[in-house]
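quick one, 250 residues, struct below
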Amino acid sequence: MNDSEDDGGAPLRPLSARSVVLSLLLGTHPPELPVRDLVRLVEEFGVGGSTARAALSRMAAAGDLTRTEGGYRLSERLLARQRRQDEAVHPRTRAWDGDWETLVITATGRGPAERAELRTGLTSLRLAELREGVWLRPANLRRPPPEGLDGVAERLVTRPGRPAAELAARLWPLDAWSRTARDLLARVSRARRPADRLTAFAAVVRHLLADPVLPAELLPPDWPGAELRDAYTEYQREQAGRVRAGGTRT
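---
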């Protein structure tokens, strides 16, 4: 059995040295560590010291990391990724009054690359596409209006005519998300080695990024979103302890 497998479900993809470094820094606030501590921490996950140092150099050259006086920190591009990850783990919500946030795409003549970039951006905002050019979600998130959409989309507040829970089930694969979340909770409970746990929790973060964060009344029974977030938050505390200890084992 390799570092990315357990005794249930499909194998998770193993983490490279680059992925281990990113996982550690994305979970660290502020996201900067001395070289010595980074190398020690990465070694705990089965990556050799020379491999870790080579990965750090390559990542700095590629613009993933910025060299500081004594170590490395995430680049500005990856700081945005850390903010998205933090929001996925601790989404800011408000009481839902039945309104839906709706974006209607009004721009025309956009090329395939621009359309794909727009779709990715709207999906990252936890919007779902009802039909071509119409994106919406319940208005239960605390966030500023999406940026960069002036002249591209019209932002509306609507109340669809069909039942809200029925519409949510059409827009998002809620049962599939729940099943995967339960599988991930089982994986992390079985994982013992540091590399196995890091691999499993990296998958947890990816899955949380796809959580639509719907109002409770629109979710299936026993929705595991909060349980998955709690598990990851506890793992973050564990990792923060390792960082504070300078990479020593706990």
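Residues 225-244 form the longest helix (20 residues).
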